[in-house]
């Protein structure tokens, strides 16, 4: 004669009491337990020489025990030391049920899973691979239909079998982050010399519960005068983070097991939410987003083309008009090379920028961008960024300056610093002219794809940088992502136009002041000392370029390109402006570049990569300094950009030569 | 109670507790996600969810969704 004590645990409404009735041959009233009066029902079943004592626990979703009925269940599980725990799992809702399993497993008691309502699951076209479930969790799984007693005999046999096993249980391990595991071990170690205080809990499990934030246990240990390592030194925010890590690890486990063992068809869909469900779909969400972006860049490049031709034509007329007028050669050079050549080569790209702004604002107006942020959150989180960082990143495609300011919505300092460091890798509108110019000259029909590649590269570099900083500098996890999603709206043409004009105007203003100033300086450097051939090697610009050129020789840049980079510090538009000046004016720029023997498609590509990554511009630099609040991080941000630009451009040059040919 | 992140698309739930101290609860509270409010889950992508309260929609990342404990409405 042997007595076996088992506990029936499980979520509410999974059929625990029905199973209890089948097991014990009684007719307990089945239903929920409203209010605070909950009790554990006891029953008995005689099987051959065994007496099975069954306790039916109140339903519980977790062992965190926020409500009294959950506390009753928890106390029974943690203190009554049963011979086995039977968890009833609702086959129609496995994932949620398995979350409790991940908690029960850790108690370390012998366990059996009773997969109930398999018949309903079949009806709902949910197919469950019980063997796979069992293999994954390393817990015996028995299919039952508690209502008609199907599978009960097998369940009883399995229960007896697990209680007779002499080896300690070895269930699937939940994979906590490394730091959590370390602290669990540390606390567990400490507790193993105070086992008497822990009751039925193993030191390891007690450590997990403390890390999870079990205040009851923590208070009890403190009352005994213990000083718990790590826990007592943690601040509340840190504790929250750890509790969250542990929860997440559990969900991942339950999700992972569910994914492998369960195949189900889609549930009912509410028509009003259909768009959200498609756009934010776990599989389609990211491809949809990338396609949107790809189309946006294709449109940016092709739609602005007619405008480009028109503007170029106008500047051509200006140049011709000037040629017909008598004037001082010095002033002529200033107007032709400096003003028309430099500023003109920047202005021709204004249409591209306007088209990009209008597309971004349309996407924003429809409400899609917020969905995109949601779609990207999990991914952003996994690379160490915050989901909310995504919006500053998108703004960064327009201009890095407001993007860096937009990081103020991030609450954690680490999230902010990482986002600010990585924003400059988002290719802002000012960099577009450089791509349009070089991709157009050197890549012809493939220009759109090259430009798309550069944007993607910028994003990739940002991601890798974020991972590096998160991994080596800021060890904590990004804070939780919460965002309101605006309602979907039909984009209004007027609103988009206003938005575009507002953004485009900023660009024009810069083109008017900073860029104009920048190209004037370039013009002066290209002209002086008096008497040298304009923009030649002997000019100041030429000398300056040559001084720095050796630094860039490994990247294949000639001195003109280097001058472009130097002035690009002021603003990226000036890169094109100064090249326009040095290569004989806007009109000539493309043909001169194409004809320059020191240039090639792959060098052009490396140059575009370098321009993409090296330094945003003086304005962005100022904002970075302002937002980071100290020079240390500002210098790290800028230094990182330059370092990364050099390395990636170098790789581009050498790997690119393999494919494109030098 | 069950974490929001374990609910399914289409489920209706009532918020019963928000785990963690202060910060998260405050942020959620600002959006009207407070104890006792009813939510409809309109999307679930892995552990992230989109919930609807009336006509407002909120996206909660895995971390946040796992800290919101809810009770399914049957």
Automatic annotation (TrEMBL), chain A:
GTP 3 binds at residues 56-59. Keywords: Cell inner membrane, Cell membrane, GTP-binding, Ion transport, Iron, Iron transport, Magnesium, Membrane, Metal-binding, Nucleotide-binding, Transmembrane, Transmembrane helix, Transport. Mg(2+) 2 binds at residues 21, 25. It comes from the Archaea. The gene is feoB. Pfam families: FeoB_C (PF07664), FeoB_Cyto (PF17910), FeoB_N (PF02421), Gate (PF07670). Residues 3-165 form the FeoB-type G domain. Gene3D superfamilies: 1.10.287.1770, P-loop containing nucleotide triphosphate hydrolases (3.40.50.300). GO terms for cellular component: plasma membrane. It comes from Methanospirillum stamsii. SUPFAM superfamilies: P-loop containing nucleoside triphosphate hydrolases. InterPro entries: Fe2_transport_prot-B, Fe2_transport_prot_B_C, FeoB_Cyto, FeoB_GTPase, G_FEOB_dom, Gate_dom, P-loop_NTPase, Small_GTP-bd. GO terms for molecular function: ferrous iron transmembrane transporter activity; GTP binding; metal ion binding. GTP 4 binds at residues 116-119. Mg(2+) 1 binds at residue 22. GTP 1 binds at residues 10-17. It is a multi-pass membrane protein. This is Ferrous iron transport protein B. GTP 2 binds at residues 35-39. It is found in: Cell inner membrane. Its main location: membrane.
From TrEMBL, chain B:
It holds the Pfam family FeoA. Keywords: Iron. It comes from the Archaea. InterPro entries: Fe-transptr_FeoA-like, FeoA-like, FeoA_core_dom, Transcriptional_repressor_C. The keyword Isomerase does not apply. One of its GO terms (molecular function) is transition metal ion binding. Residues 2-72 form the Ferrous iron transporter FeoA-like domain. This is Ferrous iron transporter FeoA-like domain-containing protein.
């Amino acid at each position: 004669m042997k007595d076996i004590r088992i506990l029936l645990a499980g979520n509410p409404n999974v059929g625990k009491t029905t199973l209890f009735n089948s097991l014990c041959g009684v007719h307990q009233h089945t239903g929920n337990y409203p209010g605070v009066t909950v009790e554990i029902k006891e029953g008995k079943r005689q099987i051959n020489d065994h007496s099975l004592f069954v306790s039916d626990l109140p339903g519980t979703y977790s062992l965190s025990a926020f409500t009294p009925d959950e506390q009753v269940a928890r106390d029974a599980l943690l203190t009554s030391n049963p011979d086995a725990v039977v968890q009833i799992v609702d086959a129609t809702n496995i994932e949620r049920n398995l979350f409790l399993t991940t908690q029960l497993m850790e108690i370390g008691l012998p366990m059996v899973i009773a997969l109930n309502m398999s018949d309903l699951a079949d009806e709902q076209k949910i197919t469950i691979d019980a063997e796979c479930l069992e293999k994954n969790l390393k817990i015996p799984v028995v299919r039952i239909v508690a209502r008609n007693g199907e599978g009960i005999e097998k369940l009883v046999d399995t229960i007896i079998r697990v209680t007779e096993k002499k080896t300690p249980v070895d269930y699937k391990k939940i994979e906590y982050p490394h730091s959590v595991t370390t602290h669990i071990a540390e606390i567990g170690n400490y507790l193993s010399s105070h086992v008497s205080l822990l009751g039925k809990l193993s030191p390891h499990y007690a450590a997990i519960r403390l890390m999870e934030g079990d205040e009851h246990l923590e208070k009890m240990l403190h009352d005994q005068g213990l000083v718990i390592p790590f826990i007592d030194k943690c601040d509340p925010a840190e504790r929250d983070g750890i509790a969250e890590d542990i929860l997440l690890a559990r969900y991942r486990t339950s999700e992972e097991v569910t994914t492998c063992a369960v195949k189900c068809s889609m549930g009912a869909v509410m028509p009003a939410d259909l768009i959200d469900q498609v756009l934010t779909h776990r599989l389609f969400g990211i491809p949809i987003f990338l396609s949107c972006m790809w189309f946006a860049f294709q449109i940016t490049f092709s739609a602005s083309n007619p405008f480009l031709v028109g503007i170029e034509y106008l500047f051509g007329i200006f140049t011709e008009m000037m040629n017909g007028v008598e004037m001082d050669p010095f002033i002529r050079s200033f107007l032709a090379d400096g003003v028309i050549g430099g500023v003109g080569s920047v202005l021709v790209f204004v249409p591209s920028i306007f088209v990009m702004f209008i597309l971004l604002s349309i996407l924003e107006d429809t409400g899609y961008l917020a969905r995109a942020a949601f779609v990207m959150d999990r991914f952003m989180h996994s690379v160490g960024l915050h989901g909310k960082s995504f919006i500053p990143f998108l703004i960064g495609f327009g201009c890095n300056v407001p993007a860096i300011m937009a990081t103020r919505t991030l609450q954690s300092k680490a999230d902010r610093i990482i986002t600010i460091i990585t924003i400059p890798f988002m290719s802002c509108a000012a960099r577009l002219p450089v791509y349009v110019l070089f991709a157009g000259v050197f890549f012809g029909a493939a220009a759109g794809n090259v430009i798309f590649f550069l944007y993607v590269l910028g994003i990739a570099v940002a991601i890798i940088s974020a991972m590096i900083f998160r991994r080596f500098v800021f060890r904590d996890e990004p804070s939780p992502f919460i965002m309101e999603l605006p309602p979907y709206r039909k984009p209004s043409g007027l609103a988009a136009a206003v938005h575009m004009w507002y953004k485009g105007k900023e660009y024009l203003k810069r083109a008017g002041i900073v860029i104009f100033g920048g190209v004037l300086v370039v013009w002066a450097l290209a002209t002086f000392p008096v008497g040298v051939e304009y923009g030649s090697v002997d000019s100041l610009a030429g000398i300056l370029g040559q001084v720095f050129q050796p630094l860039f020789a490994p990247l294949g840049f000639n001195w003109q390109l280097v001058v472009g980079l130097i002035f690009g510090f002021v603003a990226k538009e000036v890169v094109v402006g100064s090249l326009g000046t040095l290569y004989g004016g806007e009109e000539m720029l493309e043909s001169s570049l194409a004809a320059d023997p020191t240039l090639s498609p792959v060098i052009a590509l490396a140059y575009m990569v370098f321009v993409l990554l090296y330094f945003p511009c003086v304005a962005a630099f100022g904002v970075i300094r302002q937002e980071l609040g100290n020079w240390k991080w500002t210098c790290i941000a800028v230094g990182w950009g330059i370092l990364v630009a050099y390395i990636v451009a170098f790789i581009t040059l050498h790997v690119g030569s393999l494919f494109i040919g030098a | 109670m069950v974490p929001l992140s374990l609910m399914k698309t289409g489920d209706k739930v009532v918020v019963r507790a928000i785990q963690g101290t202060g910060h998260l609860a405050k942020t959620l509270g600002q959006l009207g996600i407070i104890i006792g409010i009813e939510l409809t889950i309109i999307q679930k992508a892995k552990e992230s969810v989109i919930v609807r309260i009336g006509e407002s929609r909120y996206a909660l990342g895995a971390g946040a969704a796992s800290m919101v404990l809810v009770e399914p409405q049957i």
